[in-house]
Amino acid sequence: MEITEIKSRLSIASVLHYYGLKPDKNNKMCCPFHEDKTPSMQIYYKTQTAYCFSSNCKTHGKSMDVIDFIMYKENYTKHEAIKKAEELLNPGTGNMEISREQFLTNMFQYFRNAINNSKPAKEYLKNRGLDFTRIEIGYNSGQFHHGERKTDELLKQALEVGLLQDKGQINTRTGEKGYSPFAKWCICFALRNKEHQVTGLYFRSALYDDPSLDGSMAKHFYLKNRSGIYPGYPKKETQKLILTEAIIDCASLLQIKEIRENYSLISSFGTNGLNEEISQAIQEWCHSEQSEESKEIIFCFDNDEAGKTAVEKYSKDFIKNDPKLKISTVELPCKDVNETLQLHDESIFTQLLEERKILFSSEKRDSQITQNDTRTVILTKEESLKTNNDQPKTATDFLQQKNLLKNLNQLIEKAGIIGEEQSRLLLFLITISYLNKSPLHGIVQGSSGSGKTHIISRIADLMPQEDVLRFTRITESSLYNWGEFDLFGKIIIIEDLDGLKEDALYALRELISNQILSSLTSIKDKKGNNKSTNKIVKGQFSSLSATTKGELYEDNMNRSFIIAINESEEQTEKIINYQNRRNAGEVDKSEEQKAINFIRKIVRNLKHYEVINPFATQIQLPNNVKNKRRLNEMFQSIIKQITLIHQFQREVRNGFLVTEIEDIENAVEILFESIILKIDELDGSLRQFFEKLKKAFKEESFTRFDAMEVTGFKKTQLQFYLNELVRLEYLKQIGFANKGFKYKISYSDNIQKVRKDLKEAFNRQLEELKKKK
Questions:
Q1: Would you call the peptide bond into 231 cis, given omega within 30 degrees of 0 as the criterion?
Q2: Strand partners, 611
Q3: Do 275 and 339 sit in the same domain of this protein?
Q4: Which parts of the sequence belong to the Zinc finger CHC2-type domain (predicted)?
Q5: DSSP summary character for residue 192
Q6: What number of other Cβ atoms are within 10 A of residue 210's Cβ?
Q7: In this structure, are residues 618 and 662 in contact, taking their beta carbons and an 8 Å threshold?
Q8: Buried b (16+ CB within 10 A) or exposed e, 512-540
Q9: 64, 319, 604, 691: least CB-packed within 10 angstroms?
Q10: Domain of 722?
Q11: pLDDT digits (tens, 9 = 90+) for 180-206
């Protein structure tokens, strides 16, 4: 075809449409050849040319015809651009007689370009954590056979491959034959053969169960005569192959540069979709370019029964065909790969791959058990964990120590949390409960400047940072605006609970109590009409908050522990001594960071288990605690957390971890101060303030200035505490305001005796348990 004929037949509008570019009403658009925030390219339909007025553009000064535009857009030579222009003019069989592969390649390119003009497609991909600028994804709006693209050649080949279906009707408005587009309103992925040609297309509904979609509620669509693999055949030179259950999972992993460069990836078409073509491709990969290192298949199937069953089945098939293979599986913290990467930073998957569980290996180890005189072995759970790299192995060994909680507490101190021995351990246990289905919540209460915000922030530093969300404030509607799973499997840190308005507190209470927020909101449907929809936010997270008013929130939040900051002189001395040592350069910050990183490794090594406590009915809380029902549930929850952190040391019975008496003893010790707070009428800070007054004044009267001197509290906070103690009748107010009040202790309770009696009561019950056992 002559160049003049191409230019006369191929319009600039068709080229722009093919590349998904759309000028504005003034025929201007952002230039696709350089970074352009304001439209600098003018389209001239009369001359069928385009011109960029920006001096930063590589095309500046040149009026581009359709061939020039293709040449710059594809980085082609002039000859290649002419060939491409001919393909655009002849997408079907016509004069060019292009192959099925070339036709599907052209259509996939069209679908890729169509995303730029589709807001629903962009929103869907954003919600799924997929970036169309980093991986090849298309969108089928169902409009590819309209307008100037509609040719006999296109219609013929689209019908042949199944992209169009003949309705068997005539359009009464146009008098033309009617066609129904296949997989309308779906995102699209290319399936490729060994030569990396596009031989099939996979479509995933962006509308989920919209009944208007081909008259069904289907989510997955394949062209007829399906062939090809996603994203393509494995690279022969790679030693490790990641196998996912779904294409979206595989696409999610392709976005991670480190994985893309060091692994081959293949997606199955579901748990039963590892077909003959995929199996054959994997076998060829296994036998290609053998090295001293065994080739390894890494399963990343869904974290459900179907996924686990499929992994077991396919693993045995692979190992039967090639006993030298190494086979492993990644234990996902969420439902599937895509959800895991939606809810976590990309770095978590690097960690998960490092900690993958070995299922089959031909490497000899002393602890391994050979089967049937082959070189194939099956590793136990504990052995498989030990085959990980050095850091996870050390973390696992740490979790197997006898004095685990004591050593963990010392490690937390090495990480820079000074003093607060029982409180810091309790806060740590509360925080790691985000790994469980029923996470816990802690409210740290103390006076202004007592360090309550500091301690929750440092505890959060010990957690995998991809799982931590930190807020200084939360507005009334902000919690409703998160995505459905954005707060799922997270740790939330709220620096100032007192700063939240009632509507924000209400939303937080709902998430803590019921793990879900539901709101009725309006959205625009595909026709632009307002439509009511139920927006859901799921909130399976643990949380730590700081407040000066612990009593205010205690009754409003289920599963919330109140922890009082230690404001004693002894604790103050510890903190000051640490601060001075740090400023003198005597604290090795690198050692602190090593401790922090190691604790993060420990947390990542923990897996979720359900827990059975066989002693749950045999130990009772004292009768004089407030909210005994709620406290009992929290007490049992902490026992479960202590059992979970000992998971490498506890019996697993029918899939459940079994609590031991030692776990109950540790729970009593760790939770003791919180139980005292439940008994005490005064909250933590107020109790510490009152004990200082009792020690200093006994029977003497005193002024607020005297109280300020012995307690160290500032004027505003001190007056609040004095007024509260007067209200509760612990202090008597003497005199008149104009002359200055004096105060006298009117009720001197003996909290130490209460502590002693409670400790003895628990010890008696624990001794009885040991005797029975």
A1: yes
A2: 657
A3: yes
A4: 27-86
A5: E
A6: 15
A7: no
A8: beebebeeeeeeeeeeeeeeeeeeebbbb
A9: 691
A10: 684-752
A11: 888 888 999 999 998 888 999 999 988
**CB-based burial, 435-455: b 16+ in 10 Å, e otherwise:** bbeebbbbbbbbbeebbbbbb
Residues 466-510 pLDDT 10s: 889 998 878 888 888 888 888 888 999 998 888 888 888 888 888
**pLDDT exceeds cutoff 60 at 318:** yes
Domain total in the chain: 5
The predicted model scores a pTM of 0.52
Tell whether 613 is covered by a domain: no
Cα-based distances in Å from 2 to 5, 8, 72, 488, 624 = 5, 10, 20, 60, 97
3-class secondary structure, 342:
helix
The answer to whether residue 499 is domain-embedded is yes
Q: Can you give 221-263 as a three-state secondary structure string?
A: EECCCCCCECCCCCCCCCCEEEEECCHHHHHHHHCCHHHHHHC
Answer whether 684's CB lies under 8 Å from 550's CB. Answer: yes
Three-class DSSP category at 118? coil
Domain boundary among 586, 621, 638: 586
- Residue ranges of the alpha helices (H) in 333-477? 337-343, 347-354, 381-386, 390-399, 404-414, 421-432, 452-461
How far apart, in whole angstroms, are the C-alpha atoms of residue 649 and residue 656? 13
CB contact at 8 A, 1 and 10:
no
Pairing status of strand 186-192 against strand 138-140: antiparallel
Number of residues that this document lists for the chain: 773
760 part of a folded domain: no
Residues 155 and 164 sit within 8 Å (Cβ to Cβ): yes
Residue 450: closest CA among 725, 714, 722: 714
- Please state, in angstroms and as integers, the Cα–Cα distance from residue 184 to each residue in 22, 181, 214, 621, following that order: 21, 6, 8, 62
pLDDT at 145 over 80: no
More confident residue, 299 or 91: 299
Asked if residue 244 and residue 215 are part of one domain, the reply reads no
3-state secondary structure of 57: coil
The tokens describing 496, both together, are: 């100032």
- The helix or strand, by DSSP H or E, that contains position 299, with its residue range, turns out to be strand 296-300
Residue where a domain terminates, one of 331, 359, 388: 388
CB 445 within 8 A of CB 562: yes
pLDDT in tens, 711-731: 887 787 788 889 889 988 889
Write down the pLDDT at residue 366: 35
Separation in Å, CA 548 to CA 54, 317, 567, 686:
58, 61, 13, 10
Task: For residue 372, name the pLDDT band (cuts at 50, 70, 90).
Answer: very low
Report if residue 669 sits inside a domain: no
The CATH number of residue 518's host domain is: 3.40.50.300
pLDDT of residue 625: 63
